[in-house]
Amino acid sequence: MSDIIQTIRQLVLDAVNAQKLATVVYGTVISTAPLKVQVDQKLILEQEHLKLTRAVKNYEVEMTVDHLTESRSGGSGDAAYGEHNHEYKGRKKFLIHNGLVVGDSVTMLRTHGGQQYIILDKGVM
Description:
Strand content: 35-45%
Number of domains: 1
Protein name: DUF2577 domain-containing protein
Strand order of the largest sheet: 3-2-1-7-8-4
Number of helices: 1
Radius of gyration: 26 Å
Pfam families: DUF2577
Number of strands: 8
InterPro entries: DUF2577 (IPR022555)
Structural class: mainly beta
Distance between the termini: 44 Å
């Protein structure tokens, strides 16, 4: 009876492994246009197999600001150009520079079936 149970266990494990459930994978960016990530000596992932999160893309955000600029002076020495600052208020757009560059180490999630990889983060291995 023990052999039957062991055989069933092995069959179940083989079936689960064959499904290629989500797995964490590490790689290195070798090209950005088009995007290519090298996982090991044999496996290079092409752009069509890669999905990016905001953690690895440049993107814009709107932020509300309310402060004064740093004091600066300038101009020709005229009193109107003496040291001063300005208000900086309102909703402003800012560009977040998270884009991938060649040489970045990336952490990816291989999705069910192993055909798509989601790049979760960079610089963490």
